Amino acid sequence: MSDNDRVPHPTTAELLPRLPSPLTAIDDDRFTRHGVRVLLKRDDLIHPDLIGNKWRKLVPNLEAAGGRALVTFGGAYSNHLRATAAAGRLLGVPTLGIVRGHELADRPLNPSLARCTADGMRLHFVDRSTYRRKAAPDVLAALLEAADARDAYVVPEGGSNSLAVQGCTRLGHELRGHADVVAIACGTGGTLAGLAAGLAPDQRALGVSVLKGGFLTAEIRALQEAAFGGPRGAWHVEDGFHFGGYARVPTELASFAEDFEDRHGVPVEHLYVAKMLYALVALTEASRFAPGTTIAAVVTGAPFGDG
């Protein structure tokens, strides 16, 4: 991607978001019998292609890119890759996805990556060792050189950088005065970092990690430091509901998601949202929330061939 690939400065107003996203109460005996009220923050309805936190995180970066081609990173089932590809299609901006797993280059594309290419994204597959070191300046430079993307605007994995974190503060602002606890599923932690900063002082944010490893707390602290110069808001991360790690959806979790859909008529994305909702039920049954607590559960995505 060279200067010839640049397009006129796109306007993110063309993305036509639905903001603030709807906030609706649900009636679920698993919560009500403990005196807990649950609201669903339907960020999955913000935009049909840039769903939920992806819209909130990408738009500040799209504006900063100023029409340059976009390069970003993700695994084979990355929601972020799909959202970036969709943004590129909508705004006429070239996109490149650097995908974890060199072996995938020789296999048929799964539905998620096929959607990326259908939206015009070029895919560049790298081995997992290189992918883990992608943020190192020399490794990143080599990746951009190999992919002919030297002049592109780089969006990190999951879209989480200081601009994205600042963009997600609006989510917290929209929930001020509506809940005591705001729960959200976390992959890279950028949405939680911004959400917590945007909430009122008497509110707290609860992140449910979809990855195993217990590293997110440090990542979120670093993101808040980069975005705000220090910690913001009251928040913590629950690490016990990853169900084996990213993209792991055992039968128990899939059954839970299907039951939740049947109860409330809300499509439940399995890789993130189902784990967050499952955690809320388990934590409520363990008396982690005092009677009278109102929880807002952020629905950050919609199903896409998962389960």
Through-space gap between termini? 36 Å
Helical stretch tally: 12
Largest β sheet strand count, sense and barrel closure: 6 strands, mixed
Known CATH architecture of the largest domain: 3-Layer(aba) Sandwich
SSE diagram, text form:
Elements: E1 23-26, H1 29-32, E2 37-41, H2 53-65, E3 70-74, H3 79-91, E4 95-100, H4 111-118, E5 122-126, H5 128-132, H6 137-146, E6 153-154, H7 162-167, H8 169-175, E7 181-186, H9 190-198, E8 204-209, H10 216-228, E9 234-238, H11 251-264, H12 273-285, E10 294-298
Parallel strand pairs: 2-10, 3-4, 3-6, 4-5, 7-8, 7-10, 8-9
Antiparallel strand pairs: 1-2
Short summary:
With 307 residues, the chain is an alpha/beta fold.
Question: How does this structure look, described?
Answer:
By secondary structure, the chain is an alpha/beta fold. The chain folds into two domains: 17-48 and 165-298, Rossmann fold; 53-159, Rossmann fold. It has helices at 29-32, 53-65, 79-91, 111-118, 128-132, 137-146, 162-167, 169-175, 190-198, 216-228, 251-264, 273-285, and strands at 23-26, 37-41, 70-74, 95-100, 122-126, 153-154, 181-186, 204-209, 234-238, 294-298. The strands form two sheets. Strands 1-2-10-7-8-9 form a six-stranded mixed β-sheet. Strands 5-4-3-6 form a four-stranded parallel β-sheet. It is globular and about 55 Å long. The two termini are 36 Å apart. The model is unreliable at 1-9 (pLDDT under 50).
Keywords:
307 residues; alpha/beta; Rossmann fold; 2 domains; 6-stranded mixed β-sheet; 4-stranded parallel β-sheet; 10 strands; 37% helix; globular; disordered N terminus
